[in-house]
Amino acid sequence: MTTTSERVTTAPVLYHQRVSGEQSVNSAKAEEFLNLMFEEGAAEQGTWLETRLAEVRAEIAETGTYRHTPAELAFGARVAWRNSARCIGRLYWNSLRVRDRRRVTDPADIAGECVAHLRQATRSGRIRPTVTVFAPDTPERPGPRIHNEQLIRYAGYRLEDGSVLGDPRCAGFTEQVRRLGWRPPERRGSFDLLPLLVESDPGDPRLYTLPADAVLEVPLSHPDHRWFAGLGLRWHAVPAISNMPLEIGGVTYPAAPFNGWYLGTEVGARNLADEDRYDLLPAIAELMGLDTGSERTLWRDRALVELTLAVQHSFDAAGVTMADHHTESRRFLTHLEKEERAGRRCPADWSWIVPPVSGGQTAVFRRYYDEPDPATRPAFLPPG
User: Is residue 87 flagged as an active site residue?
Assistant: First the structure.
């Protein structure tokens, strides 16, 4: 691999504690998961439920945990995506590619597998939903952690006047990795890639630089406004979330980075538009010649649509997979119908499912959904 490592010599700020002495895996959770898998016909051919249950019970009694088979790991990861109440793209849950890297424990190798994940998921712009699963927590020791929110994020530099150059969401993390030895580019910009922060041994976090050829970025332009390209904006192609633990059948995998592909509104109407992110709407409105003196001119709405249009146009022109909110809304209702025919609940967080642009014009707006249940498993869990 081509990443570089720097051993951290300063005291860690937010690193996990050793979990030796933790309680054993709850055998009831393991049995619930295995029952689900056999009910849905996802078990390996020739495997019998009672035989597998007996094996798992015995392994938990002896070691305090158990090891999923490759088929169990793949099914669990896919169902965790199916259960993700905030995701509008769950129609494709069963196509998730699962990379089993549970035996990879060296931090440099973990970073290398993250880079491989990005390359394999990117596929020159034909984004493929992918998850890479590293070692789980056990009663003997914790599994590795990836402290980045996503594998790809842009630095945020706090300036003396209180403003931030780059992504304000990442300002705290940027300061953290700088304390741990990361050196920003000599000429800092708004889209500087942050390093990976990997902790395999408790209290020994390591930094790894993402190689440029593993990160596909799309320069942003507008189909009608030639001045837009002069803003020098860009965004990365793969949204790979890396700080949400994956829990399957009572076993927790703290490092399981996963990705789908972007929805245009995620980038255009949130990442680049939100006041606590890049906050570009005032600049876009000014360049469009809009009257920003009153909210009643709807200048924010007009600038927001044009910014989202530029993002969607740019990804399409670059041949990079990106969904639009109208099409994906209809596909989500198709997923909902399939789940209902299968006799399953389809929990959904309305505030996340309804897009931030033209919500009332999308197919998902005028209905309610099953409330999310925090106890549902398998699941990708909230960070921390």
Answer: yes
> Which SS3 state, helix, strand or coil, does residue 34 take?
helix
- pLDDT, averaged in runs of 10, over the chain (384 residues): 34 44 84 97 89 97 97 98 98 97 97 98 98 97 97 98 97 98 98 98 96 97 98 98 98 98 98 98 98 98 98 98 98 97 96 96 94 97 91
Single out the catalytic residue among 90, 99, 145, 153. 90
CA angle 270/273/277 to nearest 5° reads 80
In whole angstroms, give the CA distance from residue 53 to residue 109: 33
Q: Is the bond preceding residue 378 a cis peptide, omega within 30 degrees?
A: yes
Q: Which one-letter amino acid corresponds to residue 113? A: E
Tell me whether residue 93 is one of the annotated catalytic residues.
no
What's the CA gap between 289 and 376, in Å, rounded?
49
Q: Which of 182, 235, 261, 299 is catalytic?
A: 261
Task: Name the active-site residue from 199, 247, 266, 328.
Answer: 266
Spatial CA neighbour of 19 closest among 138, 136, 145, 147: 138
Q: Indicate whether this model's pTM tops 0.85.
A: yes
CB 258 within 8 A of CB 146: no
- Annotated catalytic, 141? no
Are the CB atoms for 236 and 366 separated by under 8 Å?
Answer: no
Exposed e or buried b for every residue in 289-316, given b needs 16+ CB within 10 A?
Answer: ebeeeeeeeebbeebbebbbbbbbbbbe
Catalytic annotation on 90?
yes
Nearest to 110 by CA among 250, 277, 242, 291: 242
